[in-house]
User: Which sequence fits this backbone?
């Protein structure tokens, strides 16, 4: 269920998605025009709403329906570069590459007509459009190919880097064709499309985040990389904590490229000015937050509107600190009830954070830009988020003001565990005889290739420890801590059944706005868990 933000218009996504499920996309388009005529003031008809709906449909592999919605969005908002690009992306997925190419070109025309425009924004859109055209022109995306690779990347710069590696690999190894399709994780909070790739079993390689929902495919679709790990002597290249993070039952199923820890980022200058120390315990975190509140500073910011995954970081880290990783992973697998007393305890701690001014309900209305601006301006002192925080201005110009620390201890008897975002590649069993797949894994695992990733993206640490020559001081501090951690878990939305993840993000937002209604949240989520996991 999608909830309206308090005192705001109802998201049109809620209505149109239901219409698509029952009657199809064409009827949803008619419904859009009907509601716009009759209820203009009730619903949110903004560009972002239709765009979000189209991206959700793409994530669910409903490509034809997504194309209809993206066409509608382009018709309503013809000057939006993103409207052209997202329609083109959907057309590529539908294997209508030449039509898609025209939309990418039209998007570039619209981009060049925008005046004035921030140079960073211009370059980002320009790079994306030209890169997508180069994929169509330089990579033969036919089903019969020497290498079939599905790349799921985190952001446009990462996507550009990935394409460069594929094109270089194709040329250096004299491959006749590479079937390459790229999608951006940042377009949809829950990566339903990755699950579809494993079930189709058609690619040789699938890149993305590690572990989580992939555990269900390791015996059927995903190949173990034990042989490559031994033959390539990857134990000498990847640190032990990375190998542990990419393994199931001691066996590696994933070739890591880069990683990002999810610590608490804090403004050192604010802490210094108020004579605050980094908290080591739960009670110390409460005290620090209350002192910040007394001085008119929000302890933590967060994004809830439009991009909800950061809300789930709190549920994950509280679960890890109170009950430990073994409990949490069992819960993520659907084996434990949402109404279990231990989950109730997690929500009780979470509610206490609102009562003691660690968190505030108003932050739920923040979009990503609002949250970043809170931290950059000093309106907030902390954020529980991954390193991609620094991929966006104005934060990346303020590195000297920031430090990191792990979420403080709650239960001292629990072993340390952290959220780690690992980017890398799975090899599917269907490719076991494809030597090009093994060659590509070796290529992407090498120190010089991973160092080139760090040079471009900066705020992701290469998995290959021979690429750690140019890390910044914060990354060195992170590594010192991470090498002592025994357990790692992936992002919540990548770590459970996609339908549960999608619903939970909405429910976490609802809880953030209504901290006294946790029992209702748990009741709704438990009903869904029973539907998804009836045998449990």
Assistant:
């Amino acid at each position: 269920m999608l909830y309206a933000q308090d005192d705001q218009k109802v998201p049109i996504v809620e209505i149109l998605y239901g219409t698509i499920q029952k009657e199809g996309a064409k009827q949803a388009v008619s419904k859009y025009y009907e509601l716009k005529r009759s209820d203009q003031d009730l619903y949110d008809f903004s560009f972002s709403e239709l765009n979000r709906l189209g991206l959700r449909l793409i994530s669910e592999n409903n490509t034809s329906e997504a194309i209809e919605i993206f066409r509608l969005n382009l018709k309503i908002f013809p000057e939006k570069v993103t409207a052209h690009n997202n329609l083109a992306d959907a057309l590529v997925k539908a294997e209508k590459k030449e039509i898609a190419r025209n939309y990418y070109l039209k998007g570039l025309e619209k981009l060049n007509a925008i005046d004035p425009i921030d140079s960073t924004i211009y370059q980002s859109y320009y790079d994306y459009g030209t890169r997508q055209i180069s994929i169509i022109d330089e990579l033969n995306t036919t089903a019969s190919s020497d290498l079939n690779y599905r790349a799921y990347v985190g952001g446009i710069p990462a996507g550009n880097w990935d394409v460069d590696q594929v094109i270089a690999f194709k040329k250096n190894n004299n491959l006749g064709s590479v079937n390459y399709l790229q999608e951006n994780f940042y377009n949809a909070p829950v990566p339903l499309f990755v699950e579809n790739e494993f079930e189709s079993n058609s690619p040789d390689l699938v890149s993305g985040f590690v572990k989580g929902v992939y555990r269900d495919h390791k015996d059927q679709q995903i190949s173990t990389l034990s042989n490559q790990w031994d033959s390539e002597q990857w134990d000498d290249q990847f640190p032990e904590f990375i190998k542990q993070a990419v393994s199931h039952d001691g066996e590696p199923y994933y070739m890591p490229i880069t990683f990002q820890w999810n610590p608490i980022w804090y403004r050192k200058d604010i802490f210094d000015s108020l004579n605050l120390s980094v908290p080591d315990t739960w009670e110390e975190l409460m005290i620090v937050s209350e002192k910040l509140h007394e001085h008119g500073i929000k302890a933590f910011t967060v994004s809830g509107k439009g991009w909800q995954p950061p809300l789930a970081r709190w549920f994950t880290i509280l679960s890890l600190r109170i009950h430990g990783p073994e409990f949490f992973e069992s819960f993520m697998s659907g084996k434990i009830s949402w109404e279990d007393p231990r989950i109730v305890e997690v929500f009780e701690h979470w509610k206490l954070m609102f009562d003691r001014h660690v968190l505030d309900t108003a932050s739920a209305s923040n979009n990503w830009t609002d949250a970043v601006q809170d931290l950059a301006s000093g309106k907030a002192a902390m954020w529980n988020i991954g390193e991609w925080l620094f991929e966006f201005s104005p934060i990346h110009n303020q590195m000297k003001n920031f430090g990191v620390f792990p979420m403080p201890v709650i239960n001292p008897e629990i072993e340390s565990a952290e959220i780690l975002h690992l980017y890398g590649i799975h090899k599917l069993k269907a490719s076991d005889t494809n030597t090009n797949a093994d060659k590509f894994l070796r290529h992407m695992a090498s120190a010089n290739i991973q160092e080139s990733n760090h040079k471009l993206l900066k705020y992701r640490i290469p998995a290959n420890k021979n690429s750690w020559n140019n890390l910044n001081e914060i990354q060195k501090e992170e590594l010192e801590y991470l090498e002592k951690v025994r357990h790692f878990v992936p992002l919540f939305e990548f770590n459970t059944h996609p339908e549960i993840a999608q619903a939970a993000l909405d429910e976490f937002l609802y809880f953030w706005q209504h901290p006294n209604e946790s029992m209702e949240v748990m009741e709704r989520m438990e009903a869904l868990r029973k539907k998804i996991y009836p045998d449990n």
